[in-house]
Amino acid sequence: MSDKYLTRIAGLLRKAETTDNEHEADAYLQAAQRLATLSSVDLAMARAHSTAKEKRAVPAQRTITIGEQGRRGLRTFVQLFLEIGRANSVTCDIARDSTRVYAYGFDNDIDAAEALYSSLVVQMVRASDEYIKSKRYAQETIGRWVRVDGPRPGWRGPSQEWQERPVHATTARVNFQQSFAARIGARLRQARQQAQQQAVEADTSAASGATGVEIVLRAKEVELQDHYKANSTARGSWRGSSANAGYSELASRAGDRAGRTARLGGEQAIGGSRPAING
């Protein structure tokens, strides 16, 4: 990513850190993603017009460390990175233990995804910790069949009864972070679509039909797909995160609200990654 875009994105991040207005925070997040998308469009256009003698950017593969093996919450961290990656033309393979993500894409797109993730994952953990400490999730109950001791008249096999229990903190945390990640993904994809539409409307090279930008973006998409197929060694499918104990509607709604108001963090996230989250 060029210094021009790095400087402008860093400025947006500084503003995001200093505002207490939710609407402004949302605007800065949208603006940062649109800027990252426009940077990606500029690179794609430059590549399309480069000659064979010029150094041409090619897709790359990068390993992103999510956390240490055995740490809780790694799957929801991976889900957050996947949501951010999809909004920035980055395809990912995931390690079996969810400790690492193998990102495929152009360097500037992976840079943008890492920058957004390094800030948003900290916010996701902080927001979910605050929600768990509030104990609001305990107002909700989950019903399930539970095995009980002792036979019952007319009942063959193990005895069971339906029990209502308060939502467990682990269930609430997983549901909160799942919804947070999903909402972040929706916001970034909306910003990406707006930026690409802006680039298409500004393209005056096409008299009719598809614009030059649309053609270049489609060519980039095909090139990325070919690169992934040629280099990925993934087998099977990633299961994603789950809360085996049930589902918490309250925690899910709270996570969605937190994802709607998440802001971007410090400018040190641009041009370099922060340490992995080990929570």
Secondary structure layout:
Layout: H1 3-18, H2 22-49, E1 60-65, H3 74-86, E2 91-94, E3 100-105, H4 107-134, E4 141-148, E5 159-166, H5 169-202, H6 212-231, H7 249-261
Antiparallel strand pairs: 1-3, 2-3, 4-5
Helix pairs in contact: 1-2, 2-5, 2-6, 3-4, 3-5, 4-5, 4-7, 5-7
Descriptive notes:
With 279 residues, the protein is mainly α. It has one domain (3-137, 168-269). The protein has 7 helices and 5 strands. It has helices spanning 3-18, 22-49, 74-86, 107-134, 169-202, 212-231, 249-261, and strands at 60-65, 91-94, 100-105, 141-148, 159-166. The strands form 2 sheets. A 3-stranded antiparallel beta sheet has the order 1-3-2, with helices on both faces. Strands 4-5 form a two-stranded antiparallel ribbon. A hairpin with a 5-residue loop joins strand 2 (91-94) and strand 3 (100-105). The two termini are 30 Å apart. Residues 265-279 have low confidence and may be disordered.
Short description:
By secondary structure, the chain is mainly alpha-helical. The chain is 54% helix and 11% strand.
Q: What keywords describe this structure?
A:
279 residues, mainly alpha, three-stranded antiparallel beta sheet
